[in-house]
Amino acid sequence: GEALAVSARVAPLGSRLVLLLVEDLTEARRIEAVRRDFVANVSHELKTPVGALSLLSEAVMDASDDPEAVERFAGRMQIEATRLTNLVQELIDLSRVQNDDPLEDAEPVRVDELVAEAIDRCRHQAGTKQITMAAGGTADLSIWGNRGQLAAALGNLVENAVNYSPARTRVGIAARRVTAPGGDLIEIAVTDQGIGISEKDRERVFERFYRVDPARSRQTGGTGLGLAIVKHVAASHGGEVTVWSSEGQGSTFTLRLPEAAAARDRGIDHDMPG
Ligand code: ADP
How far is ligand 1, taken at its centre, from the CA of residue 177, in Å? Predict the structure, then answer.
C-alpha cells in the first residue's frame, strides 16, 4: 500500500521533472544555436573588410607606377580599416555590456552631460548633412547608472538618428521625469525626420547584426550592433528602450531609466533592516 501510494505521488512528479528537463534541453539548444549564429555572423562581418583590404593591398602593389591609383586605393583601404576598427570596438562594447553589471559602479549621471556628449559625438556627421540638433528638458535630471554605458546607449541612438535621416532635417532630444509605480524614471526621447522603420522591422532592429538595409548601414559605417547594445544597457539598468516610427516620416527611440535619487532611496531602503 505504502509503495503504491509513494509511486502514485512520484509518477506525476517524475513526468513533471522529465518535462522540466526537456524544456531545459530545448532552452540550452536554443542558446547554443544563438551563440553559433552569432559566431557565424561575426566571422562573416570580419571577412568582408579583411577581404577588401587584402584585394586593395594587391591593387596598390600592381599600381605602383600610377600615383593617382595608389592614392585612390589607399583611400579605400582607410575606409575598410575604419570599418574594421568600428566593428571590433562595438564587439568589445557589446561583450562589456553583456558581461559587466552596470550597477556595480553606478552613480548619479547628469542627463545634460550625457546629451551634450552624444551631440558632440555626432556634430561632424550632422554638420556635413546640415542636420540641426536640439535638446530640451535635460536640466536638473540625473539617472542612476554606469556613465560609460549610458553614454554609449544615448550616443548610438543619436548617431542612428543622424545616419538614417536625409540632409537638412532635424534631430530632437527631449528629456523628462516621469512618475512610475516602481520609482520615478527619466525618459529620453530621440526623434528624427528620417526614413523610418516598417512595422515588420521594428521588432527586429534590436537584434544583433539585424539591419533593414545592409548596404545603407555599411555605407554609414554601421555594424548592426548599436541597438543591441542600447537594449542591453537599458535592460541591465532596470529600464527599457522602445521605438515608435512612421515610414518615410521618422522615428522616435525612447529610453526609460531609473531616476538617480529615486533609485538610491530604494537601494538604501533595501539595505535597512525592517
Ligand atoms: P547600424 O550599425 O546598422 O546602424 P543598429 O543596431 O544601430 O545598427 O541599427 C539596426 C538597424 O535599424 C539599422 O541598420 C537601420 O536599418 C535601423 N535603424 C536604426 N535606427 C534608425 C533610425 N533612427 N531610423 C531608421 N532606421 C533606423
Answer: 26
